Amino acid sequence: MLVQADCVFEYAFYMSERGCCRSKLFFQICRNLTYKSHKNEHPLTGRSTALDAPITAVSTAENPWVVHLRIATTFGAGLLDSCVGSLINNRWVLTSGTCVQNLRFAWIRYGAVNVINPELVTETSSSRFNNRVGLIAINRAIEFTPTISAVELAAASDELPETGTLCGYGAQEDGSPGETLRCIEFTLSGQENDVFEGTSEGETSEFDIGAPLVSNGKQIGVLVRPAENGSAALFASVGSYKVWIDFETQSPF
């Protein structure tokens, strides 16, 4: 899937937000970009690795913190990464460290049951990471709505629950990034250092990296390795990074 259609959409939205001159520059920057696989520079082929079973009911009102990320990297050679993140307050997004290590520019979609029709899109070039997790600074304060709001983060003292729900966009049959928000239940195993594993009957994809794992209204994990080919998914423990997250997000940038 070429990113050109995305750019046309975001270009129109950008004009309404920022005005003509800046939006023309934005279009010139992104019009030739294509999607990038985290594993290969060419699209994957074969069966879908989307979140395919068992899927829970999905709406942005039920998962208002989930955001979709398109990321241009320093060494991307004109290709875009696709990740997922979570809104943790009105100025910051939490995601995987691998999604932001070489971030040059990011487009953040909020309230997106389908990534083609998000409720809001913002852009930014500010990020930081600490080992397995990363933070993206939003370029303006986000106004919360019933379908766009922040998730509460688990504390270091919280015990790991037995199950959690992960929401992401998966992959399409041709290996390109998925476009529809889907959620899947994971059974969780004991934490070791800053990570824990989760198993499910379904599979996640490389494009779900950074997705939030939530239990009882709190985000407890960040997906850092998808569950594929029968392997367990690996999650970074939010509680293990809570002190760093709190310190970094004290100010907008």
Automatic annotation (TrEMBL):
- Coiled-coil positions: none
Q: Does the keyword Disulfide bond apply?
A: yes
Cross-referenced PROSITE patterns: TRYPSIN_DOM
The record's section on Pfam families has: Trypsin
Ordered alphabetically, the record's keywords are: Disulfide bond, Hydrolase, Protease, Serine protease
Sequence ranges assigned to domain Peptidase S1 in this UniProt record: 44-250
Keyword Hydrolase among record annotations: yes
Q: Which GO terms describe its molecular function?
A: serine-type endopeptidase activity
Q: Where are the transmembrane segments?
A: none
* SUPFAM superfamilies attached to this UniProt entry: Trypsin-like serine proteases
Listed GO biological process terms: proteolysis
The name this protein carries in UniProt is: Serine protease 3
Q: Which organism is it from?
A: Papilio machaon
